[in-house]
Amino acid sequence: MKKFILPAILVSLGSGAAFAGNANSEKAKALTAGYRIVNVGPNETVCVNAQQQCDNVESDEICTWNVDGVTQLHSPDNPTMCGSFLYKIPETK
Predict the structure, then answer these.
(1) Which tens digit of pLDDT belongs to each residue from 35-57?
(2) What is the DSSP letter of 1?
(3) Backbone angles phi, psi at 41, to 5 degrees
(4) What does the alpha-carbon distance between residue 39 and residue 52 come to, in Å, rounded to a whole number?
(5) Which of 2, 17, 29, 68 is the most exposed place for a label (fewest CB within 10 A)?
């Protein structure tokens, strides 16, 4: 029985590490549609799909709209409100 316990523990730890590594790589691929804030009147804004993919995993650079290069993109909370910032997709090497 004692000879079985140590290998079972090692297999369990190895499997857990493999799943944790796979979950981390999936998190890096969390792409989402970017939305921009558009003024439609005095004190009125809407959240408009920018037709651009961004990453929701926090990084150094905020995702900006390709059309003007300065409009920051957000995730949508609802059709009229944009939520948190999105980030540039990391380049793969």
Answers:
(1) 999 998 998 888 999 999 999 99
(2) -
(3) 170, 180
(4) 19
(5) 2
Cα separations in angstroms, 19 against 6, 9, 11, 12 = 20, 16, 12, 11
- Which H/E stretch holds residue 85? strand 81-85
pLDDT bin (cut points 50, 70, 90) of residue 29 is low
CA distance linking residue 19 with residue 25, whole number of Å: 10
How far is residue 30's CA from residue 1's CA, in Å, rounded to a whole number? 44
DSSP string, 6-74: HHHHHHHHHHHHHHHHHHHHHHTT-EEEEEEEEEEETTEEEEEEEEEEEE-S--SSB-B-TTTS-PBPE
